[in-house]
DNA sequence: AGACATTTGTACGTATGTATT
DNA sequence: AAATACATACGTACAAATGTC
C-alpha cells in the first residue's frame, strides 16, 4: 500500500469510486489473492476513513465488475476468474 | 394500485425487495409506460413510507434487472426493452 | 450448550452538492 | 430565484449467520 492509496474527499472521483480503484490496484498488486478473503468492511472503514455505507457502495461496484464476490456472514473474496 | 401494494416491515422479503416487486407489477400493469418516467424517489418515499436510501436501493435493483434506467436530474424511466 | 466476537444485511435519518426545469 | 430530482456521504441501530472458545 503506497502513499497514493488515500481518499481525497475533494477529488474528481467520488470517494467510493476512488476506493474501488485503490482496491482494484491492490488486488492487481497481489495484496489479496484470488479465492481468498480481502479486508472486511470494518477494516476498510478504519484504513481509509470512510463510512461503512460508503465502503459497501465500493464493494457493490467491485462485485458488479466481477472483481470480488461476497459471502454473507463470511467476508468479501477476490474473484478467481477476472 | 391495489391494497396489496403496501410494504410489510415484518415480511419475509426485505422492504426494498418488496418495493421492487410492487413496482415491477405496476409496470407490468401499465401504471407507467416504457420510455416514460415513473414516480420520483421522493414520491415513492411518500407513497410507501420508506426512507429515500431504501427507495434508491430498490431502484438500483430494478436497474440491475434492466426494468428501468435512471437519468440523473431527470428521473427514473421504464425500459423499453424488457 | 452457551457465550462471545466478527461480518454482512437491512433500514433509518440528515446533510450537502449538482443539474435541470 | 426557486423548486425539483438525483448523487454522494455521514452516522446509527439492529438482525442474522458464522466461527471460536
Labels describing this entry:
two-stranded antiparallel sheet, mainly alpha, homodimer, 3 helices, Arc Repressor Mutant, subunit A, 44% helix, DNA-binding, 82 residues
Describe the structure.
- The structure is a homodimer of 82-residue chains.
- By secondary structure, chain A is mainly alpha-helical.
- The first copy, chain A, has a single domain, classed as Orthogonal Bundle (Arc Repressor Mutant, subunit A), CATH 1.10.10.
- Chain A is built from three helices and two strands; from the N terminus they run H-H-H-E-E.
- Chain A has helices at residues 15-29, 41-48, 52-64; strands at 68-71, 75-78.
- Chain A has a two-stranded antiparallel ribbon.
- In chain A, a hairpin with a 3-residue loop joins strand 1 (68-71) and strand 2.
- Chain A is globular, with a radius of gyration of 12 Å.
- The first copy, chain A, starts with 14 loop residues before the first helix and ends with a strand.
- The mean pLDDT of chain A is 94.
- The chains hardly touch.
Amino acid at each position: 500500500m503506497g502513499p497514493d492509496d488515500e481518499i481525497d474527499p475533494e477529488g474528481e472521483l467520488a470517494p467510493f469510486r476512488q476506493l474501488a480503484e485503490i482496491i482494484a490496484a491492490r488486488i492487481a498488486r497481489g495484496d489479496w489473492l484470488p479465492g481468498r478473503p480481502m479486508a472486511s468492511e470494518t477494516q476498510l472503514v478504519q484504513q481509509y476513513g470512510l463510512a461503512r455505507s460508503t465502503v459497501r457502495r465500493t464493494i457493490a461496484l467491485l462485485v458488479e465488475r466481477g472483481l470480488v464476490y461476497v459471502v454473507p456472514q463470511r467476508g468479501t473474496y477476490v474473484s478467481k476468474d477476472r
